[in-house]
Amino acid sequence: MEEKSQTTKIVIDTEHELTDLVREIHRTKADRIVLTFTEHTDLLISPINLKVISEAAQRENKLLIAQIIQNPIGIRNAKLAGIKTIDTPSNPTEYEWEEASELIISKKREKLERKKILETVAIQPDQKEVFEEKVEENIEKSIPTKEDIKEETGQEPIKKDYIDKRGLKTRSPFISIDQDMPSAPIEEPINIVDEKRKPSFKLKNAVSIKRILPNIKTNGNFNKKKVLRIFLFIFVPLLLLSILGGFLFNEFGTFVKIKIFVESKPVAIESVLTGDSEIDKIDFEELKIPIKTEEASKGLSNTITATGVASKGEKAEGKVTISYDANCEDEDTSDITLPVGQII
Question: Which residues cross the membrane (predicted)?
């Protein structure tokens, strides 16, 4: 059963320094690290800083991928430092982790091959010495021994030393290599001058040093006029020539002026974040943000003062009979009419 690799992400901003990153790589227990550069930091300016980070991760046996967004210079420096880079906001895929591992393995293989080559070059002897040793061995093998000479000629070899062209005395007193006869001494060539071709004139000292540089001191007294004349005729023209040469070089020399215009474009990043009340900081790996929950209750009670008349229930219905009392002596006994709303 394969062991699952742990991955951690380190978000780098402008306040991070090189020592902080090395310390974070050493502290983390995950074997895969993603360095996310969301801002333009000074760490991406030079590949030396990224090389130090890569070596720190290799010492801890951890894979490293740099997530650099909208920074071509940083991506180039990371590649020079030997770090796998991605320019997308999403997490690295398994294929990209395999590429990072292969990149580290190839770098280690190159170091081993370079080390082997240096060792072989240091151990290998000088080719000139090897060639001289081989020549001497072949010469020794080609020289016949006394027994071989006696078998071929039936006589004892004559004891006599011969010296060849190289000035080496051979081991055999009978055979000399490259030349059997002593060579005549080489005489140096004699320079013969043809009288007919010899020029009929002689070069005279047309220009005298005394004429160019007159005596500065005359009878022990310093002549200021002559020194001033020398300065005017020698140093002033040299100064004018140097000024003229500098002006011509400035006007007609090759200069290259390069202007680089950098255009920044916004990148839209869409991600769904889930609120969690149990965490304190933003978790970029699980895409969670901290939230707070609160409960509030409020009591409501009011007193209302009535401003009118309200009637409850149903209206009474029926007949009411009004009659005069029998003892009533009033003669006017007309019908009684009650107005609407009369209370009885």
Answer: 227-249
Q: Does 163 lie in the same domain as 95?
A: no
- State if pTM tops 0.85: no
My answer on whether 169 and 115 are in the same domain is: no
Domain boundary among 73, 94, 123: 123
Query: For 44, which DSSP code?
Result: G
Here the tokens at position 307 are: 């401003």
Identify whether 108 is part of a domain: yes
Number of structural domains found in the chain = 3
Supply the CATH number for residue 72's domain: 3.40.50
Q: What does the alpha-carbon distance between residue 176 and residue 171 come to, in Å, rounded to a whole number?
A: 9
Q: Please report, as a single letter, which amino acid is at residue 179.
A: Q
Q: Going residue by residue through the chain (344 aa), what tens digit of pLDDT does each one get?
A: 445 678 888 888 888 888 888 888 888 888 888 888 888 888 888 888 888 888 888 888 888 888 888 888 888 988 888 888 888 888 888 888 888 888 888 888 887 887 777 766 655 555 666 667 777 777 776 666 666 666 666 665 555 454 554 555 445 444 444 444 455 555 555 544 444 454 444 444 444 444 444 444 444 445 677 778 887 888 888 888 889 888 888 888 766 677 888 777 776 677 788 888 888 888 888 888 888 877 777 777 777 777 877 777 777 777 777 776 666 666 566 667 777 777 76
- Report the C-alpha gap between 148 and 170 in whole angstroms: 16
Residues 247-277, buried b or exposed e (16+ Cβ, 10 A)?
Answer: eeeeeeeeeeeeeeeeeeeeeeeeeeeeeee
Q: Is the dihedral of CA 156, 160, 164, 167 positive or negative?
A: positive
* Alpha helices, H only, the chain: 18-27, 47-59, 72-80, 94-123, 127-142, 146-153, 209-212, 224-230, 236-252
Residue 144: exposed, middle, or buried by beta-carbon count in 10 A (0-12, 13-18, 19+)?
Answer: middle
Are residues 81 and 20 part of one domain? yes
**Cβ neighbours, 10 Å, residue 76:** 14
Domain membership of residue 65 as a residue range = 7-123
